Amino acid sequence: MAASDGVQEAAGTLVLVTACDHGYFAHLANLLASLRHQTAPPERVVIVDVGLNDAERAQLAAAGHSVVPYAGNLLGDVKPHLAALEVRACLDELVPDAEIILWLDADIWLQSTTYLAELRGFARDHDLLVTPQMDAGYGGGRTGLRVKAGWLGIPRIRSWNHDLLAEAYGRDVAHRLASHAIVNGGFVLARRDSRFWAEWRRIYRAARCRKFGIDQVSLTRVFVETKLRAAALDPVYNWCCSFTPPVLDRAGDFFRKPNPPYAVLHALHLTDVAKTTRYTVRRLGGGTQDVAFFDPATVAAAIDACAAYRSRPDTAR
Fold first, then answer.
1. In sequence order, what DSSP letters do the residues of 180-236 get, joined into one string?
2. How far apart (Å, rounded) are the C-alpha atoms in residues 191 and 96?
3. Of 98, 102, 131, whose CA–CA distance to 117 is shortest?
């Protein structure tokens, strides 16, 4: 992307950070494998170790990745299973050499070859990029959403995240944010020098409880309440498969949004049951196909097919 005066602007050093334990290692392998077709790969990959074994650490180090131990103490004493969530708010301290920090949960894998290149471009104009847990295509699966009458009878979208807002920050805050979609904590992109990180830590520390989801609802408060140059990306950049599974392309070889115009998915996030569930998904043009989004063969086939599709001269950009 060029600057407004026609001079090419430097993208900045992008560091991809994720966290993993032994139970997530197979998912992490899919994420790392899916980087191979990226047109603008990260300068560095950092894996926060929240329970890997020695063999896994050695394998990651041999592949040239940085492995950083973390015990869950940057924001106070936290249980080990929450460490991978808490550390998200402290990445500017964990990777001080980065200019752009991209956090992806280890159960995400990248399908589109231009994913990281596009994110680098977006980072020039924004302090913070997130993806909402709300999309026109999130309708045929487990969304956990419910509609309640709000003040003056105005419908408000509610979920367990909004209930957690009330528990962590009080009913007034939850009411104020009830009409806003919760942003997904599995994807965060920000420049390291952005005040976003300090704002996130401030709001995180103000929570009245420490439990699963606090990182996500505190991130939502940062996005909605602080005066940052923030943008919500289309969920194609972080498609939560358990909300609604995607559909297969007509050739049955890579994944698209399940609703027209069937946009190509940049990244698939194996939220909740998608980590272990086999789906019967629709193929555009007719028929269905059994798919496991966590299967390495599925991942490899999809990213190779999408790369071939993106390289075709007739592909819409």
1. SPPBPTTEEEEETTSTHHHHHHHHHHT-S--STTHHHHHHHHHHHHS---EEEPPGG
2. 11
3. 102
Which pLDDT score, from 0 to 100, does residue 221 have? 96
State the Cα angle at 220 between 234 and 95, rounded to 5°. Answer: 85
Q: For residues 81 and 21, give the distance between their C-alpha atoms in angstroms, rounded to a whole number.
A: 9
Token pair 């009330």 is found at: 166
The string of pLDDT tens digits covering residues 179-194 is 888 899 999 999 999 9
Six-digit token pair at 242? 């358990």
Instruction: Name the residue ranges covered by the structural domains of the chain.
Output: 14-135+182-237, 146-177, 239-311
Distances 130 to 12, 33, 82 between C-alpha atoms, Å: 19, 23, 20
Residue-wise pLDDT for 39-73, tens only, equals 999 999 999 999 999 999 999 999 999 999 887 77
**Alpha-carbon gap, residue 272 to 172, rounded angstroms:** 29
CA separation (Å) from 62 to 171, 173, 194, 299? 49, 47, 32, 22
Amino acid at 155: P
Asked if residue 50 lies in contact with residue 74, where contact means CB atoms within 8 angstroms, the answer is no
For residue 222, give the amino acid letter.
V
Rounded to whole angstroms, how far apart are CA atoms 29 and 15? 17
For domain 14-135+182-237, the CATH class is alpha beta
- What is the C-alpha separation between 226 and 198, in angstroms, rounded? 11
Q: Which two tokens stand for residue 294?
A: 């966590």
Q: Encode pLDDT of 12-21 as tens digits.
A: 799 999 999 9
pLDDT at 315: 66
pLDDT in tens, 249-292: 988 799 999 999 999 999 999 999 999 999 999 999 899 999 99
Q: Model's pTM, two decimal places?
A: 0.90
Rounded-to-integer distance, Cα 169 and Cα 218, Å: 9
The residue count for the chain: 317
